[in-house]
Amino acid sequence: MPNFRSPEEFREVMDRTFAIMSEDPDMGPQLREADTPQRFEFTDLHLVVNIRAGGPDEPNLAWVWSDDVSWEPKVKMSMSSETANSYFQGKENVAIAIARRRIKAGGDVKAALAIIPMTKPLFGLYREMIAEDYPHLEV
To answer: Do 8 and 46 meet the contact criterion of CB atoms below 8 Å apart?
Structure first.
């Protein structure tokens, strides 16, 4: 399986991915409206990111690479960077990954599953970004 070259590369790719979701004219407003704060832990890289809907003068999504945030996540997910990369390329089904323990989920998992259809357009955009700038990550 393809691997990220470093934790820095992973953060770069994920920052770009979250920005794509936030700035997309369809996904961004839908995710803001869903208002589902989430915490993701990437176990192999020892990284944590907390994501929430943006405030009035912010983009649609706001994220911080830390647990030092002023909001509580509704959903917590833990996975490897490999699983995250596979998911964003549309190759990993979250419900099956949870059942197979490739993703460990806690909190309001139903809320997390509800926003997945909103992010479906991301898969093609993520694959394009990977093909152009990070071909070593293609699944």
So the answer is: no
Asked if 82 and 1 touch (Cβ cutoff 8 Å), the reply is: yes
Residues 91-119: tens digit of each pLDDT: 999 989 999 999 999 999 899 889 999 99
* 3-class secondary-structure state, position 47: strand
Looking at domain 7-132, its CATH superfamily turns out to be SCP2 sterol-binding domain (3.30.1050.10)
Distance CA 61, CA 20 (A): 10
DSSP character for 94?
H
The residues spanned by each domain of the chain are 7-132
- Other C-beta atoms closer than 10 Å to the C-beta of 38 total 19
* 24-52 tens-digit pLDDT: 999 999 999 999 999 999 999 999 999 99
